[in-house]
Predict the structure.
Amino acid sequence: MNQRPYTVVLIVPTGIGASIGGYAGDALPVARAIAQICDRLITHPNVLNGAQLYWNLPNAFYVEGYGLDKFAAGSWGLRPVHQNRVGLILDQGIEPDLRLRHLQAADATRATLGLNLTDYVVTDAPLQVELRTAASGASWGTIGNPDSLLRAAEVLIKQAGAEAIAVVARFPDETDDEALQAYRHGQGVDSLAGAEAVISHLIVRTFHIPCAHAPALMPLPLDPDLSPRSAAEELGYTFLPCILVGLSRAPQFVVKYYTSKAASPSNITSSDPCEIWAEAVDAVVVPATACGGSALLNFSQSRTQIIAVEENQTAMQVFPEYLGIKAMRVKSYLEALGFLVAHRAGISVDALNPSLSSLHRLSSS
């Protein structure tokens, strides 16, 4: 009898300074390794985006953070696609030369990679992105004209037939900022990431289609001490290519509304065997200090195996035990890979240790 596809979710929350995955696509090697030992890998843009660098993982699903939360809650499913028509939104606040750089990058993905892009839209007002930092050190931000963003997305969806949305917003240039220098040296928090999440969340929540964001920034001065983990962002004028590649095959969201508690994804079988729902997830891999996210909290209420990686330090201090989450603690992603192999094979990890205790009798009274 054929077994169901082994499905893993890889989460590295954005904007919290993760030592692996907190920089410019530096969690991609982890994703590539996990993709080799599972049938389906579900992860999010923060893991797969590497500015102008990316890697084709045929069994990986590129799912925006808000959509991943809804998926984990069982409210939304994922429908794999062969291709999406990707619409591009450019912030009116982007200078003409910088706008042209992004348009040329978009055209390059069409000519070189064969991506299917619609015509683009410029917002009817500058988006006015502002950056913030929480007391924990995590980054977040605000957008001054969210309605302008939503109007632009609606034009792309209704007039151009866009099935996924890429957004390029003008972000503040902070070349002398200490946080930016720390980030470039592989020690700080990505100050842009939290605001980027706000932008993509807004479109996904409103229109229920895939979305990802690339910031528009002026090129930074050369830094001879640049960290390899941050170097992907220094290769050119735009971070757009990886976004367009990811969105080109991002799964569509299946949004179903239920009128009673008796009717829910957990007890209703989808009529489409290609759709993926939360109950199909076998394991979730997450940094051990970042277990407070909505997706993980929902997965922890199911039989999904949670794997918490201690080596991936973050600015958070939310361990699974603090929230009553039962998790397998591992030191590194290498150890997580070994556990996933055993889990998929149906092998108890106890059997892989040199000492194995005998079974104990339970009282029947």
In short: The longest strand covers residues 164-170. The radius of gyration is 21 Å.
